[in-house]
Every structure is written in C-alpha cells, then in structure tokens.
Known about the structure:
The chain is mostly helical and about 375 residues long. The chain has a domain at about 80-90 and about 115-135 and about 145-380. The protein has 10 helices and no strands.
Amino acid sequence: MRTGSKSLLIVPAEGLRCLTSAITRVCRRGPSETTAAKKLRGRLDSATRSLSRSMDVVTLAFSTSTRLRAMILSRIEVMGGGGILLAAILCGAATAAATAAAPGAATQAAAPRMGLVSLITAVAAIVAIGLVVWRRWYRLSNTAWVRPVSTALGLGLFIGMFVLGSLGVTVARGMVLGDASLDEITNLPLADHARILMGHAIGQSLAAVIYFWLCRTGAGRARPTGRAAVAKGLLAMIVVWPIVAGTSMVTSSIARLIQGGPVDVIAHDTLARLAESPMGPWLVVMSIQVVLVAPLLEEVLYRGILQRTLTSLDLGRWTGIIITSVIFVSMHVGAARWHALPALFVLSLGFGWVYERTGRLAAPIAMHITFNALNLALALLSTPA
C-alpha cells in the first residue's frame, strides 16, 4: 500500500463523525424546508379559495342588486308612463266635462269643476316633465337620422310652399268672392270658407309632392311613412299633451288677471267657427281639413323642410327646433289668441323633438293629427246643442 494515498490520512473516528454530522444536517434541513413550503402553499390555496368565495358572493350580490335596480326602474318607468296616460285621459275628460257646461251656467257652479281640471292638469304636467328629465329624453344623439339638404333647396321649397299656398287662396277667393274684399272672408258661410281653405291646401300640396319625390329619389331620408314612427308619435303625444295643457292653464290664468275676466275657452278662430256651425256636409269637409290635411301640410312645411334645412347649417339640432317653433307660432298670430301661443310653442317643440329622434315625418304628423282632433272634439263639446 502506498503511503501517499489520501484515504490513509483520514482518521477513522473523525471520518465517522463527519459522516454522522452531514447526515444529521441533511435530515434537519430537508423535511423542515419541505414542510414550510407545503404550509405556505396551503395558506395560499386557502386564501385563494376564500377570496374566490368572497368574489362569488360579491358578484352574486352585485348582479342581484343590478337586476333588482333595473326591475325597480322599469316598474317606476311603467308606472310613470301609466300615470301620464291616466292623467292625460283624466285631463281630457275633465276638460271636456268643464267646457261642456252651458255659457249661461253660474260661475260658482263651474268653479269646482275647473278646479279639478287645474289640479289634474298640473299633476300630469309635473309627472310628464319629471319623466322627460329623469329619462333624459330631451337629449338628441350627435348623429342625425335625417340626411341634410342644401340651404338653397330647403329655402326654395319653404318659400315655394308659401307662394303656392297664397296663389291657391287667391284663385279660390276669386272664384268664391269675386270682387269682394279679403276682410269678408271671416264672415263667409262655412261652405265658402271651406273652398278657400281647399285652394290653399291644393297650392301647398304641389310643393309637398316635390318634397315626397325628393325623399323617394334619394335627396333625403326622412320617409313620411312607417308604423313604428306613428306609434312613437302617439306615445310622444301622451307625454307632450299634459305639458301643453299645463302651459295653456298658466297663460290662461295670466290672461284672466290681465283682462280682469274670463278668457275664451276656444282660442282659435277656425275651431270657434266649426263649433258654431250646424252639422252638415261642409262641417265634415272642414273637419277633415283641420284634422288631416292641415297637420300633413304643416309638418311637411315646418319640420320636413324648414327644420331640416336649419339643422343642416350646423346650428345645433335644438337650435333648429327652437327657430322652427318660433316661426310656426308666428304664423298662427291673429288666428289664435295670444294666451294660446306659448302652448303652441311648446307643442311645436314636441313636434320637432320627435322628428329628430325618429327621423320620420310620420311621427310629428301623428302627433299633430291627434292634437287637432282632440281640440276639435273639445270645441264641439264646449258648444251646447
């Protein structure tokens, strides 16, 4: 055996001691570190499961709260809409009952009835305004439904419709009156008055035909038909009617204070003329013109042509609606009492609003027809047989 071997230099006892110490260190270190890692992983898994359960609970609670909130808001909206509808019906019924009283009836006997009308009208108007503000229905999207038209084309159609209407009145007046003055129109029989209005309608219809032709050939997208638009117009009328009635109630009260006496229940000359006329074929003809023909032509003129042209000038959609409404009201000065003009302005805002929201002329036409029909019915009921 060589003396230079390294293994011969190690003392047996010392080698045994080193081996035992190394084994001890390995045994102590290994299991300790493994156990700590397992405990750490266990704690992490437990925390993860606990957090997951907590998130599941929060998600379930949030989704339940969202569904509950949506259900509550939906019920409130339905109740609000139903309340407006009921209030509008009651308002119309109460107004009809109040206006049906004979002119010679005592004021004290009619006071409770008018008080009920005022109360119902005020409640309906407040509910309608609150629903419009709460649901933010007054907001209009940045993208218009209606395709813009050129300013020259819009103004040309607007002026042309006025010119053709005046030409139709001139021709009809010449056929009916001959050389009589224009002031005699107000004292004409109902048949002659209806013929003159027919001439005006025929003249404006020529420009309306051009408008509808442009809509069909691609110069515009405001299609004048559509069941959905008619339904939306009728629903919008339920909301707008109480606001218009509330405005009329306030301005009528102001007029009574200024005049120191009662104001005319029928605030439009044509409605007053129809209410005073006996039943006959010409009354039916005039009623058709008031309820159907006038709304169609006026909405083509003001909403379809004028408002559409103004909104094409980048003035803002509400600016176009307001300017159109001012012109709409100014055209009724003289035919309507001054205290009825603010209500007409609010009504015109409603027409313009529903036109911008739907992009269809059928919506404001449906509203206008409904409004004129209700007013004609109230005017006929207000006159004793």
